[in-house]
Amino acid sequence: MERAVKPFVIGRKNWLFNHNHRGAEASAILYSIIETAKANGLTPFDYIERCLEQLSHPNCDLSSLLPWRVKLGKA
């Protein structure tokens, strides 16, 4: 159980630097993406890199970028 909450404890001080609502919202979105990638056995950096690369193409199929559909290396 302690391992499950460790990322929240480490990030707690970092969240103090969110000076406004938009910054806090952006942090929450990125944190959710990272943790969802981990939960699906993906390396977060590789997953985000793949998403950004695919999103740069026109007519990108967003459903193909869902973490449970992407095949990458293990976390």
From TrEMBL:
User: What Pfam families does this protein's entry cite?
Assistant: DDE_Tnp_IS66, DDE_Tnp_IS66_C
Domain of life per record: Bacteria
Which InterPro entries does the UniProt record give? Answer: IS66_C, Transposase-related, Transposase_IS66_central
Spell out the protein name for this chain.
Answer: Uncharacterized protein
Can you give the residue ranges of the Transposase IS66 C-terminal domain? 32-68
Residues in Transposase IS66 central domain copies = 1-25
In the UniProt record, the signal sequence range is none
Organism field: Shewanella benthica KT99
